[in-house]
Amino acid sequence: LKMEEELRHAMENHELELRYQPQISTDTCTVVSMEALVRWKHPERGMVPPNEFIPVAERTGLIIELGEWVLAEVARDCMRWQAQGLPDFRVSVNISPIQFSQSGLAQRMADILQRAGMPPHRIELELTESAIMTDAETNIEKLRQLKDIGLALAVDDFGTGYSSLSYLKRFPIDTLKIDQSFVADLDSPDGAAIVDAILALSSTLNLRVIAEGIETEEQLRYLLEKRCELLQGYYFSRPAYPEDVPALLRQDYKSLLNSVAVAE
Ligand code: G
Ligand code: G
Ligand code: MN
Ligand code: NA
Questions:
Q1: Is the residue at 56 inside a domain?
Q2: Alpha-carbon gap, residue 162 to 261, rounded angstroms
Q3: 3-class SS of residue 152
Q4: Residues enclosing ligand 2, CB less than 6 A?
Q5: What ipTM did this prediction achieve?
Q6: 185 part of a folded domain
Q7: Residue 177 Cα, ligand 2 centroid: separation in angstroms?
Q8: For residue range 15-74, what is the model confidence (pLDDT) as tens digits?
Q9: What are the angstrom distances between the C-alpha of 70 and each of 59, 79, 103, 170, 212?
Q10: Total structural domains within the chain
Q11: Does 70 sit in the ligand 1 pocket, CB within 6 Å?
């Protein structure tokens, strides 16, 4: 079977699953949001990484259906957690550039969320910098439509594309997500300089900022010193099973963050 057919089959046979990776606020020292990440549990090949099947889904157009499944599944999970009395938290959902360019996207997303009874303000879409900066003038209207239905918007992989600062200011976005390559590179002067610049930019433009891919105490210490407000990475948690989300939401990271901040 070609991967395209297999993927189609996978969606029909419920072989796709979600994981959730916590995003921690340095203000509250708790998990305030989660990034949903799709996984394919293949019956013979085991876990197929998204880096293998997302490009296939994009080439074949299946990404539209896949993206809509992810949003609907996130909404179902959230409604279940809400019924269990868990506190409200935001969920970040990755949107492929192909899906972003689909016409009528905002209305389709509004319909999916409404059917599930999910308040749109609890969802933040992660759009890549290159997707929104390509044809930026047209995208202002597109982003506005997504904002108008109540969604929050983040620029994913920020710093890897070619942002026009004037557009960044005109775009109705809420969050910049510092690409993990810069966090991985924090021990070099260049990496640190880029992170500093993005932190300054987000502060000037009044945007939330999140650092992703945090793996070490040194990276965390640097980001705490520079007052980065949101943190994500293996240092805190790998992408977790939906069943483990309630426990993660109850976790208090105060002593962990304090111990790192005061060390040395
Ligand atoms: O989840 P990692 O855990 O392996 O994800 C690898 C890549 O796949 C990342 O670029 C990530 O943004 C992308 N990805 C993960 N989940 C989704 C999803 O639900 N939709 C889209 N479009 N991309 C996703
Ligand atoms: O493109 P995007 O930023 O959405 O991709 C997120 C990817 O980063 C996913 O594959 C996710 O599993 C992965 N990821 C999350 N935290 C870490 C981390 O601390 N280190 C590394 N290497 N990858 C991470
Ligand atoms: Mn992402
Ligand atoms: Na990213």
A1: no
A2: 33
A3: strand
A4: 21, 37, 94, 156-157, 180, 212-215, 233-234, 239
A5: 0.98
A6: yes
A7: 12
A8: 999 999 999 999 999 999 999 999 999 989 999 999 999 999 999 999 999 999 999 999
A9: 18, 14, 19, 29, 21
A10: 1
A11: yes
